[in-house]
Here is the input.
Amino acid sequence: MFQIKRSPWVLHYDGSSCNGCDIEVLACLTPVYDAERFGIINTGDPMQADILLITGGINSQNADVVKQLYDQMPRPKVVVAVGVCACTGGIFKDCYNILGGADKVIPVDIYVPGCAARPQAIIDGIVQAVDLFQRRLEKHNDYMKEHAHDKNDAKNKKTGTED
Amino acid sequence: MAEYINRIEEIDYHDLLEKSIEKKRQGYRLSQACAAYSGGKLELSYSFADDETLELVTFRLVIDKETEIISLSEVIPYAAFYENEMKELFGVNIQLIEPDYKNKLYRINTETPFVPKGE
Amino acid sequence: MKKRSIVPYGPQHPVLPEPIHLDLVIEDEKIVEAIPSIGFIHRGLESLAMKRDFNQMVYVAERVCGICSFGHGFGYCEAVEDIMKVEVPDRAKFLRTIWFELSRMHSHFLWLGLLADGFGFENLFYQCWRIREKILDVLELTTGGRVIFSVNKIGGVMKDITPEMAVAISEMLTSVKKELKQIVPIFMEDYSVRSRLEGVGVLTKEQAHTLGCAGPFARASGIGADMRTLGYGAYKELDFEIITSDKGDCYARCDVRIREIFQSIDLIRQALDKLPEGELAAAVKGNPNGESFIRIEQPRGEAVYYVKANGSPHLDRMRVRTPTFANLAGLCETLKGADYADVGLLILTIDPCISCTER
Here is the structure.
């Protein structure tokens, strides 16, 4: 298995799911399935979260909420759609108030199918998300290192002209 | 099975308020209220339940789409949630709801999704 | 006059597993008024009745909510069976009752856990959820699903409980009862827990009646209403008493739900003992024509199912009035005058199921 360099924090948001996937996500974090052994921890604060677990489809009202949560998360970030509703809209696809899966409003990286998604599948999704997060983090760090000087230069120049 | 009454009583929409007040005085609570649409008419159902005798009486109103209904929220405050729902999903013309969410209870994009368009 | 301010609460909030939004009008630290706004999970599920036939609607009804999923399927089937005058075999009635009580147990454990999380007792939260997994294991063994079972169909059930499974259920009940007895004193006697629960969010019997509250929330205020006394399913052949408390605070709600778990254990044992032999489902012919109101007691309270059929495979209307919808008014009332710090706890004590509420 991969080595973890940082513990990603997970934010769970219930889109318009029926609760089935939500309680399975919560059950994953409790002692029997214990997803926290993969180095993640559940948080309620989007500003500190690295992985967004989203359950349920998108409806006209929560579209903005989901977008806002995604924007509030710092880069790099990974999105996991848990359950078939979050993937495509599922059984509720034909309902008048459902726009579709989570990928209608935000980019989704990992899809976990199932109605309701089983804890084993959710854990698998989380493990993949942790892996993807590590890779993105490395890329992000490399990019930041490369461009660190540019930024400083730009800053100096800017302050220079202002003076 | 403990026998209990579960009946539907058709009433005129003018009598709704009066009959509801009567039920409230007798100690019933509003168990649910809902609307249905069939054949160009709206059917409203107000169910009153008594916890002692387990009785469930449903008042049925068959009305046209334009008919004005007076809200029960003055008498039964929590009726407002049901009435806002009926108003938003079926376009039932209910007046004087308190609080009136002004068709923004669920904040849906579709107008009156349960009533087919163009009818 | 004191300065008033409005604090938006939710939809994404650490204490809330589901999104609900409240505008809290506060004066210093006290809540003056709470205005709920819902609609974050509204899917328009009832409109599917026009697109799916009445047999497929069983699966849709089960997905009204993932926690009380079995109850929704049960209630919907009862309503359609009532219209079609289908006589459900006795064995199916007992099996439904057993599964229904098992879901009540897991729902109450879930709630106890969330309550513990709400007042910041993480360890207790994990304990409750660990015990809950045992119930889910048995449900998986008997139905094949953990949260959504899909064993109901119009006319009966699709799966059977074999004698081996009955033994497994019985063993599970023994061990759950033992473990529950260990954690009950923490909820009921622990000083810090009691200080968070006692006297908080009091709802009197009169208020509960005027606001039309339902379920354990109303029973904790002394209203003796339990729809199981209607005798649907196998309840008419089982022995049970309505559990009430007269205090009406958070402590009483916790107490009522804990006693209901013990009651469910007892009911399942009775049902397993009396489980009759026979068919699992009755044959269903034709399409429903007519209408029916059916009330059942969900883990969260009274739920009303209304089905109106017109003789074609597609229903005219399927409507579910869920318990949380009835309890919203009660929630706003208990929030008035409460401390801001207790808001999360008070929302939790009605055992909100937003997904039910908005469908």
Residues 9-162 of chain A form a domain with the Rossmann fold fold (CATH 3.40.50.12280). The mean pLDDT of chain A is 82.
